[in-house]
Automatic annotation (TrEMBL):
GO terms for cellular component: cytoplasm; RZZ complex. InterPro entries: Zw10/DSL1_C_sf, ZW10_C, ZW10_C_2. GO terms for biological process: endoplasmic reticulum to Golgi vesicle-mediated transport; mitotic spindle assembly checkpoint signaling. Gene3D superfamilies: 1.10.357.150. Residues 1-62 form the Centromere/kinetochore protein zw10 C-terminal domain. This is Uncharacterized protein. Residues 78-153 form the ZW10 C-terminal helical domain. It holds the Pfam family ZW10_C2. The lineage of its organism: Eukaryota, Metazoa, Ecdysozoa, Arthropoda, Hexapoda.
Length: 171
C-alpha cells in the first residue's frame, strides 16, 4: 500500500501543474509549475521500501529452506510446502494491490529464488540415498504443481521466472 500511495502521489505531483494551470495567476500561467523534484523522491522512497520488503520475504523463504536439511530431514516436502504457503499468502495480499507487471515480477523473483536454492542444495549433495531421491522427486512435484498458480498470468509466467523451472507445468 505504501508503495502504491507513494507512486500515486508522485504521479499527482507531476500532473498537478498541468491540471491547475488555468487557475493560477497570469504570471504563473506562462510557465508550467510542477513538483518533479518531489515526485522523484517519492518514487525512490516507494522503490526502496518495496525492495526492503522483498528482501525480507526472500530471507524468510531462504530461512525456511536453510532449516531443512535435504538428506537428514524426513520433512523436505513440509519445508517446501511452507515456502509455497508463504508465497500464496503474499499472493493474496499483493495480487489486488500491486500493478500486474510489478506483481508478476516480484512473485516470479521470489519463486525463482526458492527454486534456485532448492536446486543448489540438491546439487551440493554428494550422495543421495534412494529414499531421499524419492522424497526430492515428490517435493519438486509439489513445486511444479503449486508454484505457477501463484503467478496470475497463465502463459507468461516463464517471463517472470527465468530459470525455466516448470517445463510443461501449464500444459
Amino acid at each position: 500500500m505504501f508503495h502504491n500511495n507513494c507512486m500515486l502521489l508522485s504521479h499527482r505531483l507531476i500532473t498537478l501543474g498541468h491540471e491547475y494551470q488555468d487557475r493560477m495567476p497570469p504570471v504563473l500561467q506562462q510557465h508550467t509549475v510542477t513538483f518533479v523534484d518531489l515526485a522523484h523522491r517519492l518514487r525512490v522512497l516507494a522503490t526502496e521500501t518495496f525492495l526492503r520488503q522483498m528482501r525480507a520475504q526472500r530471507d524468510n523463504l531462504l530461512g525456511i529452506l536453510r532449516d531443512c536439511a535435504l538428506v537428514k530431514n524426513t520433512d523436505v516436502e513440509k519445508c517446501i510446502r511452507q515456502c509455497l504457503r508463504q508465497l500464496e499468502l503474499l499472493q493474496t495480499v499483493w495480487e489486488q494491490v500491486l500493478p500486474s507487471t510489478v506483481y508478476c515480477k516480484t512473485l516470479g523473483c521470489l519463486v525463482n529464488t526458492m527454486v534456485q536454492e532448492l536446486v543448489l542444495r540438491t546439487m551440493a549433495l554428494e550422495d543421495i540415498p534412494a529414499d531421499t531421491a524419492v522424497q526430492l522427486v515428490a517435493a519438486f512435484a509439489v513445486v511444479i504443481a503449486r508454484a505457477p498458480k501463484v503467478l496470475k498470468v497463465t502463459l507468461e509466467w516463464e517471463v517472470y521466472c527465468p530459470v525455466g523451472c516448470f517445463p510443461g507445468a501449464l500444459s
